[in-house]
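2024-03-11 09:14:02 INFO worker-7 job=invfold-0412 stage=load source=structure_tokens
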């Protein structure tokens, strides 16, 4: 069976699908990954066919405020909609759609008569159990949470609306509103699998059948992959260090953030590894090492703690390693996942990015490393995650879809 996984966004929106692709390949399927062109190396390393999507999230800056985020999202979706059908509709038997591509992919699947399924990294269906991931962590009560969830979907639909209208016209499909399309999906019980851990966020009690939480999906890491020799030497030279990294966030702020990180680490009496990322973090000292992109699965279990932006994948990777976090959320769903890490006891109260100081970060690091409750909570979550097999659940769901 020829399966196409379509996703778009930052590295954290793409990398987990490489593990899914490998699992499906091992089950005997031909698998292609459609994503924006910068991520071709991820697909190639995993042995997957790659199909470039016509957009680049980096071209629209590093938005942080809600208005900036909406403008950047609209520009990204406009680019993504151009040529999307051509990128994904080439001999596909099954189409797997991320939350960022589903609003376009639904229409491609309709035009081609291709079975499809959602493979989401975040919960998007309204629920009374918690507020939408894009609005933070403050509960509005069950009715309020559901209303806020519906409003969040409405705002997302507005972002996609122009691109969807053009796409349906190119596909010779009649006009269709986003609200009506969602009603169709709900009536058909369109299946959506969610790749996050119930250790971090239980499945909502009011979700309909067909909406499943499988456990996390992990980026592919080759069996022969190793950490760089310089990093191995640094790890062996002293007690476990702390990793500080912001992934695809905070572009251009590396010098300021690097200085804050070094001062915070020394205030807490800890060694550190700075992951350069999009921010360009860097430091040169005996007690601090700067590295590039490295597999979380290889590095995180050897750390004392992780300072990160609370992207869904990084939050899950820290829990999987049984390592406590200090979260510095920047935008989008990051405050939500930061709040969930604090709620399960694996992190202290989040430090908003705009409020980050060396003193505050240093004090938070000293707290999570020296108070055993944080490591104990992370270890408990790691035991829970160890028995979740999100990739096997996905393979089984695909079998049911085409069976």
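2024-03-11 09:14:09 INFO worker-7 stage=emit residues=403
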């Amino acid at each position: 069976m020829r399966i196409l996984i379509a996703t778009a966004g930052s590295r954290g929106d793409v990398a987990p699908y490489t593990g899914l692709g490998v699992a499906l390949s091992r089950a005997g399927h031909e698998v292609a990954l459609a994503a924006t062109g910068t991520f071709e190396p991820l697909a190639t390393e995993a042995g997957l066919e790659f199909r470039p999507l016509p957009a680049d999230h980096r071209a629209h800056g590093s938005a942080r405020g809600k208005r900036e985020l909406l403008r950047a999202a609209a520009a990204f979706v406009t680019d993504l909609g151009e040529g999307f059908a051509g990128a994904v509709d080439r001999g596909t038997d099954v189409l797997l759609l991320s939350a960022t591509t589903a609003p376009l992919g639904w229409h491609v699947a309709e035009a081609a008569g291709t079975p499809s399924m959602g493979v989401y990294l975040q919960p998007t269906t309204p629920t009374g159990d918690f507020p939408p991931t894009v609005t933070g962590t403050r509960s509005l009560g069950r009715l309020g949470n559901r209303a806020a969830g519906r409003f969040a979907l409405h705002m997302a639909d507005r972002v996609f609306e122009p691109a969807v209208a053009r796409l349906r016209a190119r596909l010779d499909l009649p006009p269709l509103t986003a609200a009506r399309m969602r009603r169709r999906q709900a009536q058909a019980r369109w299946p959506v699998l969610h790749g996050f851990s119930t250790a971090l966020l239980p499945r909502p009690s009011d979700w309909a059948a067909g909406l499943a939480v499988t456990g996390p999906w992990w980026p592919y890491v080759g069996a022969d992959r190793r950490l760089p020799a310089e990093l191995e030497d640094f790890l062996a030279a002293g007690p476990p260090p702390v990793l500080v990294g912001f992934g695809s966030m905070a572009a251009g702020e590396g010098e300021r953030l690097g200085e804050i990180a070094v001062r915070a680490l020394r205030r807490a009496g800890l060694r550190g590894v700075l992951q350069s990322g999009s921010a360009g973090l860097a430091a040169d000292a005996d007690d601090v090492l700067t590295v590039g992109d490295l597999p979380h699965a290889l590095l995180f279990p050897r750390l004392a703690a992780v300072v990160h932006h609370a992207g869904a994948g990084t939050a899950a990777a820290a829990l999987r390693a049984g390592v406590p976090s200090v979260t510095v959320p920047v935008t989008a769903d990051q405050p939500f996942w930061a709040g969930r890490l604090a709620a399960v006891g694996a992190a202290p109260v989040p430090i908003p990015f705009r409020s980050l100081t060396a003193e505050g970060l240093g004090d938070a690091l000293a707290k999570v490393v020296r108070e055993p409750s944080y490591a104990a909570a992370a270890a408990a979550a790691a035991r829970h995650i160890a028995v979740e097999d999100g990739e096997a659940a996905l393979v089984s769901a695909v079998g049911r879809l085409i069976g």
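2024-03-11 09:14:09 INFO worker-7 stage=report msg="The domain at 2-216+388-402 is CATH 3.40.50.2000 (Rossmann fold)."
2024-03-11 09:14:10 INFO worker-7 job finished
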